[in-house]
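We emphasize that the prediction below concerns an isolated chain of 434 residues; any contacts that depend on oligomerization or on bound cofactors are therefore not represented. The input was used exactly as deposited, without trimming of termini.
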Amino acid sequence: MKKFAALFLSICMTITLLAGCTKETAETTATPDGGGAKKEEIFIYTVYPAFYAKEENYEKHIGQYLKKKFPDISFKHVHWDNPGRQYKDLIAAGTIPDIIIDNARGNLQKQILKNELDFDMSDLIKKFNFDTSKLNPAAFAQMKNIYPDGRIIGLPFQLSDFVLFYNKDIFDKFGVDYPKDGMTYDEIYELAKKLTRVEGENTYKGYQQHPGLYMTYNQHGLSPLSLTEDKADLSAPGWKAEVDNLRRFYEIPANQFTSVDDFPKGKMAMSVHVSEKIIQWYEQNKNLNFDIASMPSFSDMPNTKAQPNMYAAYITKQSKNKDKAFEIISYLLSEEMQVEFSKEGIVSPLESKKVQEAFGKNLPQMQGKHTQAIFASKNAMPPAARAAGLTYVDVPLHNVFAPLIFGESKDSVTALRMIQEQTTKGIETEKAAK
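Result of the prediction step, given as a token string:
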């Protein structure tokens, strides 16, 4: 009997040691009989926003809240990285995420659709009574307008909206009134002419706006690709209006385009950029005396800023737990969670006053800034969906200005036509390769 007891004790110790050396791939949760059951795992893959590359940022904004809200789930987070954590790497390894958070333009076409990761959430939206009317109308339209049949393969998650930054010291130096919300490009152009000065070795630029971003998220809601044919189309009058509007700013003597990111150097009166620059530019120059106003609008489209520059949340076709994935996305889009995002300076897709009023509250860099300028105007509506089966290629809209206008002095119509022709050839090449 003693020998049996000793043998039993020896076996128990061996099992214990082996268990201690074995690493579970998923967390366990206690069961009523005292045993353990593996938790369900939800794999979240972030590509954009880029700040989720730092795990502490992901954990602060998302991870900690999901763990509290869904204690029965084990969460795995991976951020895009080069090499090893790109879409192709995950697909090759057979480790397809349940949820992807990525931009709502280029990567949607080039990665999610091309790799057949897309999944129509429409039935889940109905099943869980998710109220899409609470979302920014332009942001939601952008997700609905991916397919002509209105399938919804993603929901707006976070926005990166454009605002007008202005250097108060330069305005004070030249005795010019500060910009206000709701100003038109015509009004801002008059300010830019007054504020562009050369004084000795100092050149003060009145206004800078990135031509590529300006054209891509254009305020006329135009698509550079034909909605009905496999070709580019930059012939609509709105395209010329867009180009003519911006080029006049760069024709002001001494206001040639350099970089919108030169604003923190202190010699630029106005610059249009995304709201995240409030923090970045403050950190680059803590003595910079600046504030923000709403992005300028066209006089015939008052209080209309750029189309949504945003990140969306997608459920993959390959996910084995789509219901739970949708519950998680729905929770992240709740007012409760979006208030937390907003406090950290993240622009919400919710049309909620409570969320907007919370913007930047946790960030000392934003105190004293007119952050409500971000919400003072509405996003331009995106173009309608293209017909089924048409080819997607990137349209190099930035090349309209550089090199064609800035470098080669092309007129607006010629520059647009050249990019249109170049892109159409690219579509033909893409189709031939298939």
